[in-house]
Specification:
263 residues, alpha/beta, Rossmann fold, 6-stranded mixed sheet
């Protein structure tokens, strides 16, 4: 278990985000400790993915602050005040935050191994030979050592998502974000991706997972954040959330979803 007194790996202070007149997130305050696996759950349209994208500045909050291990995301803080990060500075910070998307986002013209090694070579400027060796190890870790030379068009959805996970891990991120990583998969392929995600929780990496897979959240998360209509309704240890939810809204949500079986 992560140290309860450790500085937050991720901290959100009063984060709000609107699209037009619709406020998607309202005054989100959240601290995530290094080494935790936190699952963000809630009904569709509750702001879960937007919250995740605000952490790595793919969406810029209208209000509030986001911190990664004490470094403010999106802004430089100096003795004379704050100013927006340059594109280069933001890219370097984002390199510390891995993200696995719903729709894989693999480069179709590159093999599985080439997809995994691109960013470490071109963003982190690491030696090619070292990165190739590490990429092969990561593909083995996600059960795809035999697919190193396969192009995405010849992989199943579950295999493509496992390549995407290996690609994110190749950047040696401090925090790994999962945005509905299994929702685009056929039901029979969900289990193979969840198995890899469960294995990653054992590595001590900080993980923030937006998911509808309630069994995964119950079994793999340290804590669960329940979001509804852009607001945090409840934050609790996973066991507590599923066995003794504190709010009526949480109980209503779980009555609908708790029996959903991961496949």
């Amino acid at each position: 278990m992560p140290d309860a007194i450790a500085a937050p790996a991720v901290e959100l202070r009063g984060v709000a985000k609107s699209f037009g007149a619709h406020e998607v997130l309202t005054d989100i305050d959240l601290q995530i400790t290094a080494g935790e696996t936190v699952c963000i759950v809630g009904p569709s349209g509750s702001g879960k993915s937007t919250l995740l994208r605000c952490i790595n500045w793919l969406e810029r909050p209208d209000r509030g602050q986001v911190f990664l291990h004490g470094t403010r995301v999106g802004y430089k803080v100096t003795a004379s005040g704050t100013s927006p990060m340059s594109d280069r500075e933001l890219a370097l910070l984002r390199a510390r935050i891995g993200m696995v998307f719903q729709h894989f986002n693999l480069w179709p013209h590159l093999t599985a191994l080439e997809n995994v090694i691109q960013s470490p070579v071109h963003v982190l400027r690491r030696p090619l030979r070292e990165v190739v060796s590490e990429g092969e190890q990561l593909l083995e870790k996600v059960g795809l050592a035999d697919k190193r030379n396969a192009y995405p068009a010849f992989l199943s959805g579950g295999q493509m998502q496992r390549v995407a996970i290996a690609r994110a891990l190749a950047m040696r991120p401090e925090v790994l974000l999962f945005d509905e990583a299994t929702s685009a998969l056929d039901p029979e392929l969900v289990g193979e991706v969840l198995a890899v995600m469960r294995d990653i929780t054992k590595l001590g990496l900080t993980m923030i997972v937006v998911t509808h897979e309630m069994n995964f959240a119950r079994d793999a998360a340290n804590r669960v954040v329940f979001l509804d209509k852009g607001k945090i309704i409840e934050v609790a240890a996973a066991k507590t959330f599923f066995e003794r939810p504190a709010t009526e809204r949480s109980r209503q949500f779980l009555e609908r979803f708790v029996n959903t079986r991961s496949r």
